[in-house]
Amino acid sequence: GDVIHRMLTATQYIAPLMANFNPSYSHNSTVQYLDNGTVFVVQWDKVYLQGKEDMGSFTFQAALHSSGRIVFGYKEIPVPVLQISASQHPVKAGLSDAFMVLNPSPDVPESRRRTIYEYHRVELDTSRISSLSAVEFTPLPTCLQHQSCEMCVSSELTFNCSWCHVLQRYL
Fold first, then answer.
1. Domain of life, per the record (predicted)?
2. Distance from C-alpha of 83 to C-alpha of 168, rounded to nearest angstrom
């Protein structure tokens, strides 16, 4: 994609294992998904690293539950992830989120400057990813779960509630 797309994919991802995979290498390689309304699962099945097919095939998946829980499952990881080269593509696993803001450029008034703000990242220790293992992310409670100011203020969450003028309620 374009520069914006590449910058956003570097900062916005849910990645059980990001590397230079080539799903078209083998007719047995697939990337499949399932959505049953309560869980969305993506599975990379028998995929190979581009140019490193002799390392063997990888099978892993990401399951996104409607409750916010995320599970990464690793069925086949034929080599230690630390041995995967990052020269052609980043090698990482975890979650990251960001947003982009278009600001007027001070040099050219009719143009806009794009700024990407990464505000949260959870990186997995890739040395711990191995065959027949899993990682589970469980969301922490937030003030958005409360239906009233009183419930939020009296909860045991450690957030500092404040008034939101847009929603006309405390958050």
1. Eukaryota
2. 52
